[in-house]
């Protein structure tokens, strides 16, 4: 049974994360987040309450916040997690002379690398894939490009580095870049003119209003003719006057028409 004091601290963390970063944490993940923040607090010589007090009085460093945001978000991912969406994305990307693909909520990079492999498999050599994520830890891991061996990664793209770990060859890594970015902030994304934006398994952690706000923000950066793709129904019924919803059964797809 959780004490009243612990429950109050938990609520306050949720509030401060929302107020400062607009990060939403679903009800079922809150106790685990509270415990994880407690463990992190201990590792830096604090306790949950003293860390929260610093957060509330704006005394936490950017590094502290970065760790807490990482703990507050779910980073589950894998290579070629949704093959149908990647194939669809490649169909659209192929129609551009120099495709620029933006992967939003890219976690540790498996999605952007899967897209790069899929585009390379189609013989494309003139593309860019950029991954963004709110978690600095994820972006650091993605930029390193070292992964546990997986049958999903064709061997011609990787070399073995240490026991059971693979690293993408530099020629493939050169197609893929990453940067830390919170899509709930008003800061512009440092990757302009995307041909295709894809966001999968990220919107599901936000309420409907936040999902719509994120999609609105992403759509703003899309040039005419560009595509915005989310997992099926992740858009929560979002509509835009400037983007047309395309009839694709395996994903929610929008195309900027004006
Ligand atoms: C469950 S992972 C999905 C990864 C990948 N897209 C996939 O489908 O396998 C969701 C990712 O979204 C990121 N994320 C959550 N909120 C975000 C935000 N406001 N801005 C940018 N990234 C965010 C999380 O850090 C996490 O790495």
TrEMBL record:
CDD domains: AdoMet_MTases. The keyword NADP does not apply. One of its GO terms (molecular function) is S-adenosylmethionine-dependent methyltransferase activity. InterPro entries: Bact_Chemotaxis_MeTrfase, CheR_C, CheR_MeTrfase, SAM-dependent_MTases_sf. Residues 11-258 form the CheR-type methyltransferase domain. PROSITE patterns: CHER. It holds the Pfam family CheR. Keywords: Methyltransferase, S-adenosyl-L-methionine, Transferase. One of its GO terms (biological process) is methylation. This is CheR-type methyltransferase domain-containing protein. The lineage of its organism: unclassified sequences, metagenomes, ecological metagenomes.
């Amino acid at each position: 049974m959780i004490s009243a004091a612990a429950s109050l601290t938990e609520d306050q963390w949720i509030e401060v994360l929302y107020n400062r970063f607009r990060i939403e944490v679903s009800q079922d993940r809150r106790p685990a987040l509270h415990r994880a923040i407690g463990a992190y607090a201990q590792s830096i010589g604090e306790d949950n309450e003293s860390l929260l007090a610093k957060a509330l009085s704006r005394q936490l460093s950017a590094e502290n916040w970065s760790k807490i945001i990482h703990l507050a978000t779910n980073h589950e991912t894998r290579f070629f997690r949704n093959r149908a969406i990647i194939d669809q994305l490649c169909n659209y990307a192929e129609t551009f002379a120099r495709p620029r693909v933006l992967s939003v909520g890219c976690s540790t990079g498996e999605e952007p690398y899967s897209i790069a492999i899929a585009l390379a498999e189609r013989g494309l050599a003139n593309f860019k894939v950029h991954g963004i994520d709110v978690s600095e830890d994820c972006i650091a891991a993605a930029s390193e490009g070292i992964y546990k061996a997986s049958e999903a990664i064709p061997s011609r793209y990787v070399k073995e580095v240490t026991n059971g770990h693979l690293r993408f060859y530099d020629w493939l890594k050169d197609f893929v870049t990453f940067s830390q970015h919170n899509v709930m902030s008003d800061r512009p994304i440092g990757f302009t003119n995307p041909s295709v934006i894809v966001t999968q398994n990220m919107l599901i952690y936000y309420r409907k209003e936040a999902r719509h706000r994120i999609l609105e923000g992403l759509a703003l950066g899309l040039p005419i003719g560009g595509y915005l793709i989310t997992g099926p129904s992740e858009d929560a019924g979002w509509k835009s006057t400037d983007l047309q919803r395309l009839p694709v059964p395996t994903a929610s797809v929008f195309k900027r028409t004006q």
